[in-house]
Design a protein that fits this description.
Layout (H helix, E strand, L loop, with lengths): L1 H48 L4 H11 L4 H23 L8 H39 L2 H7 L4 H38 L5 H11 L2 H27 L4 H33 L1
Length: 272
């Protein structure tokens, strides 16, 4: 009897501890979500009320956009090739391999182009932003900016937000074209689809809504990556170990938000 009561007591204690940890995690999640939203609001207010630092913005565009081109090229090319092979594998069961180009074009422009590009940039650029600003935070460089009456949001966040916002748009267009090019190589040289047929079907199947859906997502993803990276950089504590934690949190949070927002906007565009 005593052992049964002790076992029941242990289970109750473990459930209480589990619920406590769940509550703490939920409160932390809500806190970070609110803080990121406030940082984004402050950044927009600063952007529209103070002059833009053009040279710094151009430097960030080069780091976020131009330097990401090789990685985006490889990701999009192999994605298009794999997508073409997998599509043809299923379509050949219905003797419909000619629709491979349709699937590749629609998949790249609607979903895979913006999402994979955003993930690649989040892993490369989001981590870089968090590490750079986090290092400035732990070495008190951000406090030095404030002591010199320099707004850290205008100096650090605004150029990165503007650069990420626009460069994800151009990188997504680039990824869409490269992905369809990868599908073209597989379809023409492996599946026996004529070059003219592939290009014609790819153009005919795409509508303005399909293209604009992916490009709209790209704008949102670019703002998310920049804002999240800057936020975790500003909240870095604990020296080198803190910089590592901030970098990891920035990448993980950005990836989760990209997937969640992609699901949300896909549902919105589907129903409306």
């Amino acid at each position: 009897m005593i052992h049964a009561r002790l076992g029941k007591l242990r289970r109750l204690v473990s459930i209480r501890l589990w619920l406590g940890r769940l509550g703490e995690q939920s409160i932390g999640l809500a806190y970070h979500a609110g803080a990121i939203t406030l940082l984004f609001r402050d950044t927009l207010v600063t952007l529209f009320t103070t002059p833009l630092r053009v040279q710094s913005t151009l430097d960030q565009m080069n780091r976020i956009g131009v330097m990401s081109l090789p990685l985006v090229f490889l990701t999009a090319l192999f994605t298009g090739m794999v997508l073409s092979l997998q599509s043809a594998y299923q379509l050949r069961l219905f003797a419909a391999q000619q629709f491979t180009s349709d699937l590749v074009a629609l998949s790249m422009t609607r979903e895979l182009g913006p999402v994979l590009t955003a993930m690649v940039v989040a892993g490369r650029v989001g981590a870089s932003i968090a590490a750079e600003i986090g290092t400035m935070k732990v070495t008190e460089q951000i406090d030095a900016l404030r002591s010199l009456a320099v707004d850290p949001v205008r100096y650090l966040v605004v150029p990165r937000l503007v650069a990420g916002f626009f460069m994800l748009f151009f990188l997504t267009i680039y990824a869409d074209c490269i992905g369809m090019l990868g599908g073209y190589f597989v379809s023409v040289f492996k599946l026996g689809i004529s070059s003219h047929q592939y290009i014609k079907r790819s153009i005919d199947i795409l509508m303005i809504k399909d293209i604009m859906t992916g490009l709209f997502k790209a704008f949102i993803f670019g703002a998310v990556i920049s804002t999240v990276g800057c936020y975790f950089g500003f909240t870095t504590q604990g020296g080198a170990a803190g910089v590592g934690r901030a970098t990891t949190l920035a990448v993980v949070t950005a990836l989760i938000l990209i997937i969640a927002l992609d699901c949300f906007f896909t549902a919105v565009f589907y129903f409306f």
